[in-house]
Write a structure and sequence with these properties.
By secondary structure, the protein is α+β, with helices and mostly antiparallel strands. The protein has two domains: 188 residues, outer membrane lipoprotein receptor (LolB), chain A, CATH 2.50.20; 134 residues, Protein Transport Mog1p, Chain A (3-Layer(aba) Sandwich), CATH 3.40.1000. It contains six helices and 20 strands. The strands form three sheets. A nine-stranded antiparallel β-sheet has the order 5-4-3-2-1-9-8-7-6, covered by helices on one side.
Length: 361
């Protein structure tokens, strides 16, 4: 659990590397960053993913999961390609296709080509996608951001494209037609940790199953305030403190607080990292509830662990230190989703209690 929380803040030496050609992103992509979309232009459940390997190398993938009821097998096509990052437009310098040599696969390869070039052109035309022009609707985070009208024949002609710096690579969050019907939207994003990490390769949508029991009875007990660095959080005697900044509630929940101090990052960088998947766990972006202000933000997210087939509710809060613009304090609580739904007010109040200590004059 601790590793899951801290891994979001690893600062790589490649921080200032260039990525996709033709524009300079507000937040640079790290090697390993990926994003998956649900593509509603297909009748069958279908997803499109993009991954940045570093050193000008990328991958694009189309996956349509097996549908046993309709008797349709899984369909998967991947393109591995390199680009010339010195150009101001998309240009491949190498390519490898991994799929079965059928006619349908050729069509899907051409479709992925079209998306790559179109997404690149649309992103270049916008240029600036940053905290100044991206705004969020807390009731509909998935479809709020920087909205631009465009022509996109693959999705019916006139569309609205929602851009967001929090989304890796092309910064495209969603595409809606002129009737505001969703044609294409992000479902999850993350970062693979190494060449052996197959998190990107094995993603094929979310499961509705949840193996956790959700049985939790919280006893009324005395509240206690804990301090760490320059922040405090209010828990009660049900929680067991393992180390200075981590507490557990049986095997159903944990709370972790941490200090983040890096001169090269800002609160928007941290915000983006906190939305990424780690360690076989996938955030479903449609369930995000976000409140973002200048000096703090909160995130409510549902995360699915593919290994133990459990769903958890993650409650996050980040505060800026008033006396130091490059210093932040983070709160992260993960609760089995079934247990959270039965004790929502209790867990929300713990996050609400996380605050900066008053500094005496």
């Amino acid at each position: 659990m601790k590793k899951h929380f801290f891994s979001a803040f690893l600062i790589f030496s490649q921080f200032f590397l260039n990525a996709l050609p033709g524009f300079k992103p507000y937040i640079m992509d790290f090697p390993g960053d990926y994003v998956f979309y649900r593509d509603y232009s297909f009748k069958n459940e279908s997803y499109v993913g993009f991954l940045y390997y570093g050193n000008s190398a990328y991958s694009a993938k189309f996956i349509s999961p097996q549908n046993q009821e309709q008797g349709k097998p899984e369909k998967s096509v991947s393109i591995y390609f390199t680009v010339d990052e010195s150009k101001n437009f998309m240009e491949f310098t190498g390519e490898k296709v991994v799929s079965l040599p059928g006619e349908e696969d050729i069509q899907l390869v051409n479709y992925l080509h079209d998306l790559i070039y179109e997404f690149s052109a649309k992103r270049i035309s916008v240029q600036d996608v940053n905290a100044q022009n991206v705004s969020y609707n807390s009731r509909d985070f998935l479809h709020s951001g920087l909205v631009q009208n465009a022509k996109f024949e693959q999705f019916g002609g006139d569309v609205k494209i929602v851009f967001d710096y929090a989304v890796p690579l092309f910064n495209i969050k969603a595409i809606l037609n002129f009737l505001d019907e969703v044609q294409f939207e992000i479902v999850t994003a993350g970062r693979i940790s190494s060449e052996k990490d197959n998190e990107f390769e094995k993603f094929s949508g979310f499961s509705d199953s949840d193996s956790s029991s959700g049985k939790m009875k919280i006893k009324k007990s005395k509240k206690k305030e804990f301090s760490f660095e320059n922040v405090k959080v209010v828990l009660d005697e049900n929680w067991v403190q393992k180390i200075e900044n981590i507490w557990f509630l049986s095997d159903s929940a944990f709370v972790c607080v941490n200090k983040i101090s890096q001169p090269q990052i800002n609160i928007d960088f941290i915000f983006r990292q906190m939305l990424l998947n780690t360690e076989n766990s996938f955030y479903d972006w449609k369930n995000f509830i976000v409140q973002k202000e200048k000096d703090y933000f909160t995130i409510d997210g549902t995360i699915y662990n593919a290994q133990n087939k459990r769903k958890s509710k993650n409650l996050i809060k980040i505060l800026s230190a008033k006396e130091n613009p490059s210093e932040f304090y983070a709160f992260n609580s993960s609760v089995l989703e079934k247990a959270y739904k039965k004790n929502e007010k209790y867990f929300n109040s713990i996050r609400d209690s996380f605050s900066l200590n008053e500094i005496s004059e």
